[in-house]
Amino acid sequence: MHTMASVMEDPALERHFKGHKDAVTCADFNPNCKQLASGSADKSLMIWNLAPKARVYRYVGHQDVITGVQFSPSGNLVATSSKDRTVRLWTPSMKGESTVFKCHTAAVRSVAFSHDGQRLVTASDDKSVKVWSVHRQCFIYSLNQHTNWVRCARFSPDGRLIASCGDDRTVRLWDTSTKHCINCFTDYGGSATFVDFNSSGTCIASSGADSTLKIWDLRTNKLIQHYQVHCAGINSFSFHPSNNYLISGSSDGTVKILDLLEGRLIYTLHGHKGAVITVAFSRAGELFASGGADGQVLMWRTNFDTKSYQDVLQQHGRRSTPDPPPHLTDIHPRGPHLHLPKPTAIRISQTVADTQSSDPHVVELGHSVHRTTLLKSRAHLTPTQAAANGHHSNGLPARHTASSRVGGWMGEERTSRAGAPVWSQTRDSGGGRGRREEEEEEEERGQTHPLEVLSGHPSSLDSTLRHIVQQLDILTQTVSVLEERLTLTEDKLKECLLNQSQILQDVRSSGERRRTESEDTDGSPVHFT
Predict the structure, then answer these.
(1) What percent of the chain has pLDDT over 70?
(2) Helices and strands of the chain, counted as H and E runs
(3) Residue 384: which H helix or E strand, with range?
(4) Count of beta carbons in the 10 Å neighbourhood of residue 295
(5) Which of 177, 199, 302, 356 is deepest in the core (most CB within 10 A)?
(6) Contact between residue 46 and residue 56 where contact means Cβ atoms under 8 Å apart
(7) C-alpha separations of 371 from 84, 139, 312, 382, 479 in Å
């Protein structure tokens, strides 16, 4: 790490959020920048309030890994997609209500709002991209030219285009008025994992399991930038709203920051243990979040976007290990070129003490309060079933694919004692508490309870209510197990009765046949003793 890694223009870790019990697969900031949503392989959606010491909401309802999350432009809804083949619309409040969209026939890999908040676009393993009406809560149309799983789909800022990509190694561009595929970019060496428009809608970028990131200019349909700065598949990326920068998260365990105007890598961030699965800038770009296989959500302050672009260049020029000077061929938007990793890229192994992330109170929602409206489907989940199914498995399903966005997360998972990132050094900054003090507090706190009763201060009433809720939870699960056993017993009884009646029938028919044969032989009836 070079000597100027602590300058204010460098990105800095602000907080880490712990609460997910498995890999964090997706994240998004509320447009009001007061909340951060994350989805996980533990099947839960968590809404982190960014105010210090604020409560955290955990929403339970999905039956499998959550793969995508996004706030609506107004911030009053959160959409999630899941491997359970559904999309849910949540109201991020204490009620924890959600509405279910069910029309895909396989895992849903991504969900995104249009910029006016009227539509949703989803991508699925059933090889289709589907568009939905948010207010009417119904399916509108489907786009069906992909020949393999579709990993990601996004609306352009003006809503006239949709970009999608997937395991057929293509990135497709669709016209939302004619529903036709108007362009197809096919030069991928592996699965295309993620796609998005820049904020002006003039370019799209896509990333691949082959560790490349490509940017196309939609006005000329030309590849204008091609980066190969990661050493494993890229799972997610996000454009800064200025369009000058892009962050990417990879299975190589790093977050990289690209300078798109200079066409080069400027920062490598080390904070996660194992794959980085999701990255996202806030709407204004002053913050960004990263989530990974270590189950953590890290929130970073951008910093490098606070100065004018010329000042940033001058700052880089003064560094003790400056990057090579930019070349004319690297300036956006000249012809296609390949950016290979440079050993002089700035590596940030954070030394900033995280003073705001004492374990927050988790409020668990969705067991008995969510309403479930399955569209075009016969299945209806009862709250009892949701409670019974919501907790059993925290792991990923047994079948993994080769794609870097799905497979390989858990193999690289290594966490420290408390699940926090293991930094190279520790430093107490500005009134922060020492590490020993934090460890003692963590030991006193112990495990976070699954449900925090809402009150100003914990009391004996709180603990009594919490105990009652836990007992009810156990009772619900016991009842569901008993129901299953009764059903099995009934099935066995039915089977026995059927077998018995079949045997009696066989005996009768056998006796009648023998009687008939005897009468045919000697003309007189045969009497059996």
Answers:
(1) 67
(2) 4, 31
(3) helix 383-389
(4) 24
(5) 302
(6) yes
(7) 17, 19, 50, 9, 21
Q: Which residue has the higher pLDDT, 333 or 92?
A: 92
Give the count of alpha carbons within 13 A of 487, CB side only. 6
Residue 435 has pLDDT above 50, yes or no: no
State the DSSP string of 258-284: EETTTTEEEEEEE--SS-EEEEEE-SS
The neighbour count for residue 512, using CB atoms within 10 Å, is: 10
Q: What's the full length of the chain, in residues? A: 529
DSSP 5-18: TTSTTS-EEEEEE-
Look up tokens 């409020």; give the residue: 363
Structure tokens at 154: 């996004």
Q: Tell me the sheet residues that pair with 131.
A: 121, 141
Tell me the pLDDT band of 467, cut-offs 50, 70 and 90: confident
Within 10 A of 109 (CB to CB), how many other CB atoms are there? 27
Give the Cα separation of 68 and 171 in Å (integer).
Answer: 19
Which of 335, 349, 362 shows the shortest CA–CA distance to 445? 362
Burial 44-60 (b: 16+ CB within 10 A, else e): bbbbbbbeeeeebbbbb
Q: For 114-156, what is each residue's pLDDT tens digit?
A: 999 999 999 999 999 999 999 999 999 999 999 999 999 999 9
Q: Which fold has domain 12-349?
A: Methylamine Dehydrogenase; Chain H (2.130.10)
Q: What letters, b where the CB count within 10 A reaches 16 and e where it falls short, cover 307-319?
A: eeeeebeebbeee
Strand partners for 213 = 207, 227
- Residue 389 Cα to chain centre, angstroms: 19
Cis amide leading into 421 (omega within 30): no
User: Could you give phi then psi for residue 297, rounded to 5 degrees?
Assistant: -115, 120
β-strand pairing of 192-197 with 181-185:
unpaired
pTM of the complete model beyond 0.85: no
Closest among 130, 129, 198 to 168, alpha carbons compared: 129
Going by the DSSP 8-state scheme, the letter that residue 438 receives in this structure is H
What are the residues facing 268 on neighbouring strands? 256, 347
Mean pLDDT of 282-311: 88
Distance CA 204, CA 212 (A): 14
C-alpha span between 421 and 414 (Å, rounded):
10
Instruction: Tell me which residue has tokens 């490598």.
Output: 268
CA atoms of 258 and 277, how far apart (whole Å): 17
Do 108 and 85 meet the contact criterion of CB atoms below 8 Å apart? yes
Query: Under a CB-based contact definition with an 8 Å cutoff, are residues 277 and 409 in contact?
Result: yes
Taking alpha carbons only, the member of 117, 104, 107 closest to residue 143 is 104
Q: Could you say which DSSP state residue 52 is in?
A: T
- Contact status, residue 223 vs residue 216, Cβ threshold 8 Å: yes
Q: How many CA atoms does the CB half-sphere of 312 hold within 13 Å?
A: 18
Whether the predicted pLDDT of 448 surpasses 80: no
Whole-angstrom Cα distance, residue 303 to residue 8?
7
